Amino acid sequence: MSTNTIIILVAFVVYMGMMILIGALNSKQSNNEDYFLGGRGLGSWTAALSAQASDMSGWLLMGLPGAIYVAGTGEVWIAIGLLIGTVLNWFLVARRLRKYTIVANNSLTIPSFFENRFHDKKGVLKLVSSIIVIVFFAVYTASAFASGAKLFANVFGTGAEDKTAYMVGLIVAAVVILVYTLLGGFKAVCYTDFIQGLLMLVAILAVPIIAYIGISGDLTGALGAKGVTDPAGFLSLMKDGEGKNITAVSIISNLGWALGYFGMPHILVRFMAIKSDKEVKKSRVIAIVWVILSLGAASFLGLVARGFLSEDLVASGKSEVVFIKTIQQIFDGNFILVFIGGVFLCGILAAIMSTADSQLLVTASAVSEDMYKGVINKKASEKNALNVGRIAVVAVAVIAFVIALDPNSSVMGLVSDAWAGFGAAFGPIILLSLFWKRFNLPGAIAGMVTGFATVILWDYIPFGGETLYAKTGLYSLVLGFGLALIVAVVVTLITKAPSKEITDEFDKVKTVEI
Predict the structure, then answer these.
(1) What's the whole-number average pLDDT of the chain?
(2) Taking the model in full, what pTM does it have?
(3) Once rounded to an integer, what is the mean pLDDT over residues 142-156?
(4) Of all helices (H) and strands (E), which one includes residue 140?
(5) pLDDT over threshold 70, residue 37
(6) SS3 string of 378-431?
(7) What angle is formed at CA 359 by the lines to CA 277 and CA 129, rounded to 5 degrees?
(8) Which homologous superfamily is 3-406 in?
């Protein structure tokens, strides 16, 4: 092992040790509300950075820059869609969801909110939504584990094709995330996400700026020198990496990522945990600024790296490690430079860990609070329910680990599938629950099942040898969200209106003080 590698390893060990320590310091929870929502006491900075860090994941520092590195500015439409979704989510959903979960019997999870919102005494909606959480978070967590494995394989090995290094990275990432999530619960996850959100932002802002200086500010010239045949087209929002015009379907699909935000349990649960209305307003500003800076910098990195890196990652098929390779090329030399590079590489680790821990915790709440205590054993004690939740964390982590075993798995692809699943199944239901008094239980169930089934059929079931997504290029989230919304509204209108008790609760949300 070289001296440089040892220095970077030290930075990694120190960083991961800090995360585990935070988990240990927050290991005492008296009840489920403490473990799953931190006692609803998040301040503005913690809520904002935790929500956005858990949102972006390794996708921000690996998937997005890699896509733009290959296809140019035309891939920035995804970032634009995500910015729109973030803004709408904070302005439309955050404050009202925080209030409504208090009115709806102090709901601790999204599935329990659905149950309490519609007074679903049979628990059908809670069970269906819990199953969806488990299915798609297994896929989502796998994307984080795969990101961590690729990071370790490229820093301490010869790349993702180095199966030994990939496996070691996969194990380390899974174990560290599991340890501090199991120890500390929601507070530990949010405090670590706060630190990780800051580190991610510093890394993603600094690296592309340094790389841009490295090409003397001449991006067009650098792109041409590295073999990009049409630099102007590469930098155009309306062209792809091959100089062809981007189709309307592609733009709609990429902008459609905005719809996913309304259904992301690991983001929505942050809204539920914010301390007060005043903190919501502060968090909104902090979160939006963070997203603008991070998405802009990640997109810029993908463009600059194409002209900066000496290695052609398109030819080698390693575009998702563009950030890693850029850091390694910049911070190569003396001890101080290498250590700084190691700290920036921890920024990627931060992005990975901040999402995986949140996903595992929401999965634990779905199994513990919603399935076990809510359906299987309603008389279960708080302690037993928490233990079941912790077992669920381990079980889902194992499933995600198995999914991520393939070194060729795409971080972008895994995130895309999970994002579509949650957005289509939960997004329309959340919005209608919060803003339509007439919305009822049959409509919610029908809409949720429609969104879930559409994504599965569109992305996973081959027809004539290929999936409908492969045939059309249309992102399943766009279709699934639209169909789920239509079905939910139609079924609601043709079935019995909700009871006066339910509509009174809807009206009460306006007067609740938080």
Answers:
(1) 84
(2) 0.85
(3) 83
(4) helix 124-156
(5) no
(6) CCCCHHHHHHHHHHHHHHHHHHHHHHCCCCCCCHHHHHHHHHHHHHHHHHHHHH
(7) 85
(8) Sodium/glucose cotransporter (1.20.1730.10)
